[in-house]
Amino acid sequence: MGDQSNSPSSSIDSSSHPALCSTSSIFQTRRDLLSTDLKLGLGLSTSALHGCSSKERYASCETTMDVSPSSQSFLPPPFPGPYACMSASLLRFMPSKFSSSSVSSMLDRSKSFCTSSVLWEQLSHWPPIKPLLRSTLEEKVHRSHSKTFFVKVYMEGLPIGRKLDLLSHNGYDSLMRTLRRMFRTTITCPDTSRVPPEKAHVLTYEDEEGDWMMVGDVPWEFFLRTVKRLKITRADKC
Amino acid sequence: MVRGFGWAAAFPDEVWEHVFSFLAADADRNAVALVCRAWHRIERRSRRRVFVGNCYAVAPAAAVRRFPEVRAAAIKGKPHFADFNLVPTDWGGGAEAWVEAMAEGWPHLEELRLKRMVVSDDCLELIARSFKNFGVLSLVSCDGFSTAGLAAIAANCRSSPVHTSVGLEVAILVSVASEGVNELSLVYLLLSSADIPYLRNLRELDLHENEVEDNCLNWISHFPESFTSLVSLNIACLEGDVNTSVLECLISRCPNLKTLRLNHAMPLEKLVSLLQRAPQLVDVGTSKFSADHHPELFSKLESTFAGFKHLKSLSGIWEAGPTYLPAIYSVCESLTSLNLCYATIQSPELLKFVSRCKNLQRLWVMDLIEDNGLIAVAASCKLLQELRVFPSDPYGVAPPISLTEHGLVAISAGCLMLHSVLYFCRQMTNAALLTIANNRPNLTCFRLCIIEPHTPDYISQEPLDAGFSAIVESCKDLRRLSLSGLLTDRVFKSIGASANRLEMLSVAFAGDSDAGLHYILSGCKNLRKLEIRDCPFGDKALLDNASKLETMRSLWMSSCSVTLGACRQLALKMPRLNVEVIDERRGRPLESWPDDFPVEKLYIYRTVAGPRSDTPPCVWTV
User: Among A116, A22, A148, A149, which Cα is nearest to A76's?
Assistant: First the structure.
């Protein structure tokens, strides 16, 4: 669980404080880490971590104060949130009643648990949102994760196509961004024409009647119902 | 004849009562009661409304004895952090003791409002049986009951043309008195028969954000056919299906119905046919607002909402999609309150809807509205007083949303009447907070939650001390404040010094040392509630400011660095405080733990009732 190899820094590094990273890098790390199913995160028990006393959690807060905000030599930690804090602080502020062996076993257990911000929430019931809203959001995430709608995407000139989950996007913008990233090309929408025609591609789709249409004309929900597959064609052909 | 202060006897008691009836605020009535014995006596007999902010601060019997003529009571139980699962579920806050005392001592009670209490079905049944003229039941953030309990409430609702049962009894007695003793006793027998419930006029049944067990599917059908007095029904928190046809009958026969908030489960078609029967509604909470596109349903929805001539408040709109939202554009202009925090629609549709609501005073929305949306709101909703922006993705799993400090700054600049803010975001700067403080010195409630703890000013990397200090210094009437982001002791110094009207402060993941807590407790003259989590605050500040705690309603500290020894000292020093240590992990009793044992959760509150007798295993009153 949790991919440690994508971060060059060691997790035990008191200067790698998540809050001092720019927000975008945190998102980056989180998204990479959340290859594990969200359901798994929600179902985990936190009883193992209840062994950590409040003193350690307090110690984790105190550590972060010691870090100089001006230090730029930090890297995003592999495990955002409490794990980075806890691991650093446990080494520096170990209460005398905890032996090093119990701490390291705690660390090992927490290593296997602290991989996502979902657990961060479970550990510390943060951010403070009320149960009704929390369950509505969790249900929405659950629903969006359990339903998928993969369609084939071909680009003109490439024999091998890709597959894309349309339900993981919430609109045309999101879809365009993903496709641009996937195929490394500019795809223009019907109403924007900033790119010269010889380089531009447009996105088309095959609907349930077998016709090839330009993507973007109908509401997103409607598009989801009728699309069968996608094709990126050269603009000058349209 | 003249005892004590003679002037009090210059007027008969009824005159003083009449004078006191103009005093609405509890604080004023409390002051009046301290003047002399006569006034104390008169005031207590004439007090009609009682608010108990902490159900354990006073014994129920004592409260009922002191104010025998109460008609409306509001009682709060668990600490606020119970909303975020920080308080063990068995902590307490049970309503039985209060309901039993009230059933005994306040038979004329008309309104009961309970918040964050554990209300059992037995409690509900007792409420249903005990109060002759019961009109309003409001349960907010409560748990422990089921729809079977609601069925008991419903079953006991009777509308009567005469407003007191006594009046009815007298009327019947008079009419049969001439017939002879036998008829008289027969009628009396009928009226006092145990089978006939008390006559009541339930006007308002408000279930707001409760956890209700669903074991009685048709509880709504327990409302008798003769029941027509309903004015407000809020069942938004119920999970299960509600029988639509029964509800339709109920709504049709209650002409005074003004508020109807339904739950998520009802499909859109049924919602439409329901709402068609009540075009007089002022406050509507819809059910699920998404369905496959059907032009017929769209036009029915459109005409139903066009029929609402008096609609001021709209909520619910669960899972709204762009398909059906345009059908209700017609009500936008008249709306003063809009709650879209369960509507997970994206920015363009959201924007189109909200920017039509020119008269909006209260807006609760998801952060999906983004900065652009808030800029548009700032331009169109000039009457906005309260804004709440909730996180659609609190755990950071979806692609990031473009909601930043800019949205809030725009609102603070454009909405001159804004006084209450709750804002979840992921980044903030001191400059933005300063601008907000300068734009809106009339803020009374400012709650900012930067989702990642310890987040500094993202441009300067500084702590957000300067920004929050500006808020408390500029907003002289600030009554409620929630802090977040990277904060040192400096911000607490400013708060202690400047926040003179502050009544409630919430602190999380902030501060460097005890000094932070000391600044708050030694300043903040009007502080009533302080809740702290995950801060390095400890024993010294607590003990140095022990007497301050008696001027406050309560203090919550969790995951801080308070030791058991300090709690023991505090409890010894301040006998009128209940110092509750909460620890869910250990099994051994409190007495065996050493003084330096770190306290996981601490709840301190002032009380005249002494230590409570219903503490669960995880709570110790030191």
Answer: A22
Across residues A114-143, what is the average pLDDT?
68
CB B375 within 8 A of CB B405: no
Which H/E stretch holds residue B577?
strand B577-582
- Give CA–CA dist A115/A103, Å, rounded: 18
User: Would you state the pLDDT for residue B420?
Assistant: 97
Is residue B334, in this structure, part of any structural domain at all? no
More confident of the two residues B268 and B420 = B420
Domain boundary among B32, B47, B62: B47
CA distance B512 to chain A (A): 7
> CATH no. for residue B27?
1.20.1280.50
What is the token pair recorded at B30? 């409390």
Tell me which DSSP letter residue B204 carries: E
Task: Choose from A55, A134, A172 for mutation: most chain B CBs within 10 A.
Answer: A55
Q: Which two tokens stand for residue B375?
A: 């800029």
Place of tokens 């038979």: B107
Burial category of B431 from C-beta neighbours within 10 Å (exposed 0-12, middle 13-18, buried 19 and up):
middle
Q: Across the interface, which of B397, B454, B585 has its CB nearest the CB of A64? A: B454
Q: According to the model, what pLDDT value does residue A224 have?
A: 86
d(CA A232, CA A201): 6
Give domain status of residue B588, yes or no. Answer: yes
Going by C-alpha positions, the residue among B45, B32, B2, B30 that lies closest to residue B11 is B2
Which of B86, B102, B504, B163 minimizes the C-alpha distance to A123? B86
Instruction: Please state the domain count of chain B.
Output: 2
B445 closest CA partner among B385, B372, B515, B370: B385
Q: Where are the beta strands (DSSP E) in B444-514?
A: 445-450, 480-482, 504-508
Judge whether residue A4 has pLDDT over 80. Answer: no
List the structure tokens of B128. 């249903």
Q: Which of B279, B243, B293 is nearest to B263 (CA)?
A: B243
pLDDT at A70 over 70: no
Record the pTM: 0.73
Identify the residue whose tokens are 């692609």.
B399
Between B573 and B590, the higher pLDDT residue:
B573
Cβ separation of A129 and B84 shorter than 8 Å?
yes
- Contact between B110 and B74 under an 8 Å Cβ cutoff? The reply is no
Task: Choose among B453, B462, B584: nearest Cβ to A19.
Answer: B453
Taking the alpha carbons at both ends of chain B, their separation in whole angstroms is: 49
Query: Distance between CA atoms of B239 and B146, rounded to whole angstroms?
Result: 11
Domain range for B29 is 6-47
Query: Does B222 map to a domain?
Result: no
SS3 state at A188: strand
Which of B581-618 are b and which e, b meaning 16 or more Cβ less than 10 Å from the residue's Cβ?
A: bbbeeeeeebeebeeebbbbbbbbbbbebeebeebeeb
CA–CA dist A153, B448 (Å, integer): 43
Q: Tell me the pLDDT tens digit for each residue of A167-195.
A: 878 778 778 878 887 887 777 665 555 55
Best mutation site among A54, A73, A175, A226 for testing chain B: the one with the most B CBs within 10 Å? A54
Contacts of A180 in chain B (CB under 8 A): none
Radius of gyration of chain B (CA): 27
Please give the Cα distance from A50 to A39 (Å, whole number).
Answer: 21
In B258-293, which positions are buried (b, 16+ CB within 10 angstroms) versus exposed (e)?
bbbbbbbbbebebbbebbbbbeebbbbbbbbbbbee
Count CB neighbours of B10 within 10 A: 10
Where do we find the tokens 């006569």?
Answer: B38
Q: Quick check: is B458 in a domain?
A: no
Taking an 8 Å cut-off on Cβ atoms, the answer to whether B346 and A170 are in contact is: yes
d(Cα B524, Cα B541) in Å, to the nearest integer? 14
